[in-house]
């Protein structure tokens, strides 16, 4: 038992961190281990690997992810800002290197191999981008004379331009939605709402006209007979087969032929083997994590803490919503992982970094520390 009287960094962390939120995140990670074991062996077997290749790697990536999550949750808001600046700069460099030297797969360059590890730099950029945008919006509210909002716009355009060059329109849409949500929370004018909505619609229309890959996905979504819809059709069949309580662990049919059953369509495997009841439980868990973070964020008097925690929660929730919506054929197919459930090392470590910052920002801090944060808020 950890005593409140102990004045060690760990004891202070333990009594100030949101332990309920931490438990929910660990439960989600454990669910990911179970679903990886259920979904990945057929995929590995089909491509000639050991049946537990992806499962073993999923568990392997879980260890550094937990270390990152816990380690980052010890940081102060000022340390979070400074760390995010370094991580974002590193991510931008890696994205540029990926564009120049990364292998082209299915018409896009999204991965680069460093020291034998495949890295998706766009995943690393997301949580650090949210922190920097939140800091700029908080500075704009504190000091109206500072062009912080314009700087946040430049930051968005820089990252979005690099993502479009890959191209990675799924991440572009996610980043833009989270930035827009932060801008809304920061109190943007109504005219900006219409302007940004129009710009987003214009960008989507331009992508539809100029990028065959995007046009094909939208056309297949609107008219399934216009192209190959094998994966989404199999996902729908998995939901139908699983009904409320599923076929049972290991009894799934769709995963035997779904190429991305361990990544983009792991939610469909969960539905077929464990039923809609488990899917609703996962949805409730994601919703709880987002709402719990938002509720604690809005109890903070520090604008940066409020904006940053809210932005990270929205990033986490929207990414989960996009993945589940694709599985349910509610939106066109996109390559978006389900947080901590889908296979993917870059995604898992990046998510751990993001939720670690969520835990750090929602810790209960003495009023004296809060006052110090506010007094130093305009300095990185």
Automatic annotation (TrEMBL):
Bilayer-spanning residue ranges: 20-39, 59-76, 83-101, 178-211, 265-291, 303-322, 342-361
Protein family membership: Belongs to the SEDS family. FtsW subfamily.
Catalytic activity as recorded in UniProt: [GlcNAc-(1->4)-Mur2Ac(oyl-L-Ala-gamma-D-Glu-L-Lys-D-Ala-D-Ala)](n)-di-trans,octa-cis-undecaprenyl diphosphate + beta-D-GlcNAc-(1->4)-Mur2Ac(oyl-L-Ala-gamma-D-Glu-L-Lys-D-Ala-D-Ala)-di-trans,octa-cis-undecaprenyl diphosphate = [GlcNAc-(1->4)-Mur2Ac(oyl-L-Ala-gamma-D-Glu-L-Lys-D-Ala-D-Ala)](n+1)-di-trans,octa-cis-undecaprenyl diphosphate + di-trans,octa-cis-undecaprenyl diphosphate + H(+)
Keywords attached to this entry: Cell cycle, Cell division, Cell membrane, Cell shape, Cell wall biogenesis/degradation, Glycosyltransferase, Membrane, Peptidoglycan synthesis, Transferase, Transmembrane, Transmembrane helix
UniProt membrane topology term: Multi-pass membrane protein
Cell compartment(s), UniProt: Cell membrane
Pathway: Cell wall biogenesis; peptidoglycan biosynthesis
NCBIfam families: ftsW (TIGR02614)
Pfam families listed in its UniProt record: FTSW_RODA_SPOVE (PF01098)
EC number: 2.4.99.28
Entries under InterPro entries matching the protein: FtsW, FtsW/RodA
Protein name: Probable peptidoglycan glycosyltransferase FtsW
